[in-house]
């Protein structure tokens, strides 16, 4: 009996080995590179290339000089070969033509990439009610739905455009949540970021559609340094989706993005991510380094920021979407599913900093590790002295599929106020054999049974995703799980 | 009197005293340890394991190391009237890190108490090669390295195979610092051989006019099927500073239970590491601390599961008053082969003042899949509903609060099987909470 089960497992593992990265292709588009390496000249080059105003150049240089004084952090529970920051290109843009006026002007090669990815970047998109700010290797190539958003007074454009069209907003908010001094990768990003999305929701406006952007890493050896800035004015609401897939590559690629969210009084920002960068092959070769700083501030009273993430890709994922709960009664939420397989490593979690009174936060983190992967939850809940009646609930569960993987939990709870209530619980276990047996008995194969259980396990998080993403995320989990039953 | 001294000055001052002391173990081991201490230095808040535990008192008090000839044993008299002197135990006194010679003999058969330095060469080298310092790491562990370099005396307690020790063994650590602040480096080695059963109580008592720092290292080896109850009591004065490290190695089918009750002491950093080095082991760590004033209590624990089919439980509770600080860092490590592990960890804290703070970090690090591991941590004020329940039955609010707090502490204290000690502690907790 147990022998049979073993053989079954073996078979499933072999299947997994065969299921290659679905989105691995590489399209050859003429690229314009900045010379390799990083120096003050490169920073100036990027800024010049983008015809940025003076304040941006100053800001970039300040960040660059600060970066030079910093050391790469070592505390995280991930291993990777040392990154040579001088051996990468910091600027790559599709060849500079005058900006496209409509989709016909967009390079057909670029369009075909999106088609392969199943992103219909065309009129059909309108029917689905999603505006897509597609980012291809650092420069936005097309923006749809602008008119409709314009009507509502919403600004949704590439950040490089916002620098020109709304410099006062950019100057005021850029780096206000994640300053360039924050950490090594944030400093690097601040110095060399190429593009990203900028969202501004005016007072009292409820964004009529889900905003979404697709990031892609395309050119070989080009680190991607995206910068996203979302500002929700008083009483506004926005739901923002971010999804990633990347072509197959053998060299490790660095992705060091920064996302900043600012929610004013009574505003709400919902930020959802489905991350499926190339995770490396089954030997752990290649794959994306995803070192991201994401942070939101609930600046005004009664504001709310909610992070939802489904992380299945990248060879290394290292990010902590955080909330600073400054306004009284503000709410922070973090829902995460992190799935690692083969030699993937994930060190992810959140920080909830309670500053205002009656602030609330909720953390639900579900880790799933399979193969030889390492999956860590690392989170901080900090209740400062003045955050009276603050409330936090955290739940961090880990599921282990296979005996070669690891699941770790490192929660930090720092409480300096007596009226605060903080609860944290975590469990680690595998799927019980009884449950599998129960499902087998009813004619469900072991693999389907595991997928069923994992989907149920992750449901609390997946339910938080907008509809379109929830479907994609479920598929992704199923693909990532394929054959990882152990 | 105390004058401020920089961290590096303090470190160098200790290192300079090294040559003038007669160490315990081989010169080369001590030199190694000294080098480790020297290279790591005094930890700062930048070191992960000392993130919340500031050591500025070291600079403030400028602790000295003393030689055996300088020990003032008259302090023993001060303990004579202490309630813990009256509980029925076999007592071993250690004053400023040095054992009191007249007591080095057990009344009970199967128990041998000796000083490592008194043993003959053959016995000594066997102990050193099998046990002494064998399971502790000096690197990244500056205070263990400091102890290993500077310990001048080590008590060895050996419980022979299948011996059931009726009367608990009580190790009374006494700190006496006058006129200078003193750092003591006591060292303890307990070997419970196969099938033996015993209870060991450790308590700390500080006297004198100046602050003391007890930097102790204790190693417990618990053989197959052996069972050890280990109670650690700290109900000390504001002169008391402690950094201690307890390493427990358990073999198959053994049972170990540590209950740590901490009711007073200015600075109290406890490290306890258990290594579950066999199958079917039960390992329990429990503790309660009540801190007030500017006290700091810090517990760092590690349950290291190296083999399958073991159970570990950890249960710590904190009650914090005044400006005090509590730190809990518990880690469950389940190694690759330790399948069917069942590990549980809980840390619950009550904050009773707006200036008290608690930093808790329960960690899980798991490399085996067929395990059940969980942890929980909570912090909050007293439950208003429970208080209301009591108040509505005619109990005064203050009394109601004390009842609930007592219940929290007694949950842990009830785990102490030695009745006189348990009753004493229940009373002490009541007194402390009524203050």
Q: Can you give a write-up of this model?
A:
The complex is a heterodimer of chains A (486) and B (435). By secondary structure, chain A is of the alpha/beta class. Chain A has one domain (2-481). Chain A contains twelve helices and 24 strands. In chain A, the strands form three sheets. Chain A has a ten-stranded mixed beta sheet. In chain A, strands 13-15-18-21-19-16 form a six-stranded parallel beta barrel. In chain A, strands 1-2 form a two-stranded antiparallel ribbon. Chain A is globular, with a radius of gyration of 22 Å. Residues 1-6, 95-101, 122-130, 137-142 and 215-222 of chain A have low confidence and may be disordered. The model of chain B has no long low-confidence stretch (mean pLDDT 90). In chain B, the strands form two sheets. Chain B has a ten-stranded mixed beta sheet with strand order 2-1-5-8-10-12-14-16-18-20. In chain B, strands 3, 4, 6, 7, 9, 11, 13, 15, 17 and 19 form a ten-stranded mixed beta sheet that branches. Chain B is globular and about 70 Å long. Chain B has two domains: 7-277, no CATH class; 384-435, no CATH class. Chain B has helices at 7-17, 27-40, 56-61, 76-79, 83-86, 121-130, 142-150, 384-391, 397-413, 419-434; strands at residues 90-95, 98-99, 111-115, 155-159, 169-177, 182-184, 187-192, 197-208, 212-222, 227-235, 240-250, 255-264, 267-276, 282-291, 296-305, 311-320, 325-334, 342-351, 357-366, 372-380. With 435 residues, chain B is an alpha/beta fold. Chain B starts with 6 loop residues before the first helix and ends with a helix. In chain B, a hairpin with a 2-residue loop joins strand 1 and strand 2 (98-99). The A-B interface holds A 75, 385, 398, 400-430, 486 and B 48, 52, 336, 339, 349, 351-354, 356-381. Strand 23 (406-415) of chain A pairs antiparallel with strand 19 of chain B, so a sheet runs across the interface.
């Amino acid at each position: 009996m147990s022998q049979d089960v073993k053989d079954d497992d073996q078979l499933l593992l072999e299947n997994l080995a065969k299921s290659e990265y679905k989105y691995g292709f590489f399209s050859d588009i003429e690229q314009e590179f900045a010379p390799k390496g990083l120096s003050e000249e490169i920073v100036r080059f990027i800024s010049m290339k983008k015809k940025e105003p003076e304040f941006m150049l100053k800001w970039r240089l300040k960040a660059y000089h600060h970066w030079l004084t910093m050391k790469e952090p070592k505390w995280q529970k991930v291993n990777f070969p040392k990154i040579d920051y001088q051996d990468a290109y910091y600027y790559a843009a599709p060849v500079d033509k005058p900006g496209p006026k409509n989709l016909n002007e967009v390079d057909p090669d670029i369009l075909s990439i999106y088609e392969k990815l199943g992103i219909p970047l065309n009129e059909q998109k309108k029917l689905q009610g999603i505006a897509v700010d597609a980012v291809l290797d650092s420069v936005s190539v097309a923006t749809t739905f602008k008119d409709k958003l314009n009507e509502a007074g919403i600004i949704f454009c590439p950040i490089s455009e916002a620098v020109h069209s709304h410099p006062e907003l950019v100057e005021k908010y850029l780096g206000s949540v994640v300053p360039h001094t924050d950490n090594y990768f944030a400093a690097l990003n601040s110095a060399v970021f190429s593009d990203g999305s900028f969202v501004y929701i005016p007072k009292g406006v409820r964004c009529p559609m889900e905003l979404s952007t697709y990031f892609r890493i395309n050119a070989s050896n080009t680190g991607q340094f995206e910068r996203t800035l979302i500002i929700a004015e008083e009483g506004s609401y926005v739901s923002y989706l971010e999804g990633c897939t990347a072509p197959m590559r053998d060299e490790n690629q660095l992705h060091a993005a920064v996302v900043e969210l600012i929610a004013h009084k009574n505003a709400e920002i919902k930020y959802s991510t489905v991350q499926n960068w190339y995770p490396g092959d089954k030997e752990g070769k290649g794959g994306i380094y995803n070192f991201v700083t994401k942070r939101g501030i609930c600046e005004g009273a009664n504001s709310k920021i909610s992070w939802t993430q489904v992380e299945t890709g990248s060879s290394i994922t290292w990010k902590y979407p955080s909330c600073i709960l400054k306004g009284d009664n503000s709410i922070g939420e973090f829902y995460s599913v992190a799935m690692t397989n083969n030699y993937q490593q994930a060190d992810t979690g959140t920080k909830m900093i309670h500053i205002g009174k009656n602030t609330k936060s909720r953390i639900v983190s579900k880790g799933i590790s399979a193969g030889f992967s390492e999956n860590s939850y690392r989170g901080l809940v900090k209740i400062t002295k003045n955050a009276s009646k603050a409330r936090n609930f955290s739940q961090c569960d880990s599921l282990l599929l296979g005996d070669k993987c690891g699941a770790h939990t490192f929660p930090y709870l720092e409480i300096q106020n007596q009226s605060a209530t903080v609860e944290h619980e975590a469990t680690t276990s595998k799927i019980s054999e009884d449950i599998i047996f129960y499902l087998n008995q009813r004619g469900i194969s072991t693999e389907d049974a595991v997928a069923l259980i994992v989907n149920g396990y992750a449901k609390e998080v997946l339910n938080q995703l907008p509809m379109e993403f929830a479907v994609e995320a479920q598929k992704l989990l199923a693909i990532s799980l394929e054959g990882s039953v152990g | 009197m105390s004058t401020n001294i920089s961290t590096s000055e303090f470190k160098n001052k200790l290192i300079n005293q090294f040559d003038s002391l007669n160490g315990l173990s081989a010169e080369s081991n001590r030199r190694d340890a000294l080098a480790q201490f020297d290279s790591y230095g005094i930890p700062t808040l930048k070191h992960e394991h000392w993130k919340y535990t500031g050591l500025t008192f070291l600079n403030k008090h400028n602790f000295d190391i003393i030689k055996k000839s300088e020990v003032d044993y008259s302090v023993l008299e001060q303990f004579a009237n202490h309630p813990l002197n009256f509980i029925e135990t076999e007592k071993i006194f250690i004053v400023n890190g040095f054992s009191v010679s007249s007591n080095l003999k057990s009344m009970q058969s199967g128990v041998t108490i000796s000083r490592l330095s008194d043993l003959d060469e053959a016995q000594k080298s066997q102990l050193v090669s099998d046990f002494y310092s064998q399971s502790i790491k000096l690197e990244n562990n500056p205070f263990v390295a400091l102890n290993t370099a500077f310990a001048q005396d080590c008590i060895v307690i050996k419980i022979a195979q299948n011996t059931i020790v009726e009367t608990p063994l009580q190790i009374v650590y006494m700190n006496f610092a006058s006129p200078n602040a003193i750092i003591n480096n006591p060292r303890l080695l307990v070997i419970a051989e196969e099938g033996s059963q015993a209870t060991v109580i450790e308590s700390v008592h500080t006297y004198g006019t100046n602050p003391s720092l007890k930097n102790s290292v204790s190693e417990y080896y618990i053989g197959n099927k052996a069972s050890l109850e280990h109670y650690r009591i700290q109900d000390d004065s504001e002169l008391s500073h402690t950094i201690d490290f307890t390493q427990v190695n358990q073999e198959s089918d053994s049972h170990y239970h540590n209950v740590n009750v901490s009711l007073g002491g200015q600075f109290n950093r406890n490290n306890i590491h258990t290594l579950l080095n066999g199958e079917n082991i039960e390992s329990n760590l429990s503790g309660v601390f009540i801190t007030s004033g500017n006290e700091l209590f810090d517990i760092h624990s590690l349950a290291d599961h190296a083999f399958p089919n073991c159970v570990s439980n950890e249960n710590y509770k904190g009650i914090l008053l005044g400006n005090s600080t509590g730190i809990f860092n518990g880690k469950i490590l389940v190694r690759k082969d330790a399948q069917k592990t069942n590990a549980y960890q809980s840390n619950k804290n009550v904050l009773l003042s707006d200036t008290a703070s608690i930093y808790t970090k329960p960690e899980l690090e798991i490399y085996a899949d067929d395990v059940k591991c969980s942890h929980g941590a909570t912090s909050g004020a007293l439950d208003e509903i429970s208080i209301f329940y009591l108040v509505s039955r005619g109990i005064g609010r203050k009394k109601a609060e004390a009842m609930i707090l007592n219940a929290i502490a007694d949950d842990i204290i009830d785990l102490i099987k030695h009745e006189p000690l348990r009753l004493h502690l229940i009373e002490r907790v009541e007194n402390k909470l009524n203050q």
